[in-house]
Amino acid sequence: MTLEHVDVLIVGAGLSGIGAACHLRRECAGKSYAILEARGAIGGTWDLFRYPGVRSDSDMFTLGYRFSPWPRAKAIADGRSIREYVRRTAREHGIAGEIRFHHRVTGAEWSTADARWTVRAERLDTGETVLLTCGFLFVNTGYYRYDQGFAPEFPGADRFTGPIVHPQHWPRDLDYAGKRVVVIGSGATAVTLVPAMARTAEHVTMVQRSPSYVLSLPSTDPVAGVLLRVLPRKAAYPVVRWKNVLMGLLFYQLSRRRPRWVKRFLRNGVRGALPPDYDVDVHFRPRYDPWDQRLCIVPDGDLFHAVRDGKASIVTDGIDTFTENGIRLASGRELAADAIVTATGLNVMPVGGMTLSVDGTTVEIGETTAYKGMMLSGVPNFALTIGYTNASWTLKADLVSGYVCRLLNHMDKRGYRFCAPAGSVPPAGPLIDLKSGYVMRSIEVLPKQGPSAPWRLHQNYLRDVLLMRHGPLEDGAMRFSRSVPAASKDTMREQEHKK
Q1: Which domains are present in the chain?
Q2: Membrane-spanning regions, if any (predicted)?
């Protein structure tokens, strides 16, 4: 049976996958490619998440693509606008027609003898299994599980008479107007949901076991507003983008080097946004340092407005049990609720849950070390996109896609058939350097970092620009080959003999 073959197979048609395909078309003219997407639409996260108020938690001048300017001064954008931006980019760059929807990749096997991957996908609309081969496999599925959010078991949940909803699977028919809502959680999703639901609910209570750091920022970038009035969009965009990159990097470095100063700055900002008698130290004083977990952005202070106006409240306490009519807290206090939202986080699933094998040996992703945060030790002609944790996802995604294109062009020029990062590097920590719950629950399944570059990430866009756009491709850590090793040929002959 002859299988369809493409030079590059991209998995995922979200923000990263569409960006990867655009880079490939722009920088590797003549390369054949296809995009496999498990869902039925472009957009990934931004098509899946439909809960009230869903929006970016990074500014759109850095979350947007480097080659496709975000068109407005509105920097913190709603989910629908982001979804439309990704789809428009796909159309403008001729990508939309290359996407095969309802194709969930379940496994990929690399053959050194053939210098190619055989990729297996399930067609979710028909149930059939599809096989393709490719020279390079580029996975852009993010790192969380799409079909299931993290939902801890709460005692008594089966007794509650109202709906219990996880934001990742928001029902279209949920009616909470004029009702009492409890949102469990303190992360970005909870901080987004509370003010959005408070506009029509009778009251929204956010129940948090412990607080997160929260920073209010204007939803509209004032510098962008001025520049977009006097400059063409393509001229204004990189200026605002670099301004935001540098400001974000400065704030992150201050957080790591002067955490006490940043804690005081954030707490003073919250104090200024809430009534003078509000207990900020109970509800907005985390136990960890800034950027040990992601910072929660509050556009235009909407969360604080909802609390100040009495439409929302924050309770810091443990949960003892759900009751028929709400929640009983560890302190004994009872919260009445008509609906409960469990904004309790994500489940991590590397490479979309697909299995990988190299010459018949299964790749245990949690036992690999990540090269430049984008390739796996010992895995040939393979890359994955994992964005920054301290900045916009797309800043890193753009760098990864650009690097893959550089790598492919370099291999063509030198006549290399495949490349792979060195196979044995001592791990020195998890790839995602956060102390968030979803990371801590998933350390065993995530790739590791090594002790130093190129095996270690520094979460520093400026350093990564130099490393990935201008650094050497043949750096001693990456192994290139023009031909199949003799051992692989012998193995192939033995397999043919057995047949």
Answers
A1: 4-145+349-498 (3.50.50.60), 151-344 (3.50.50.60)
A2: none
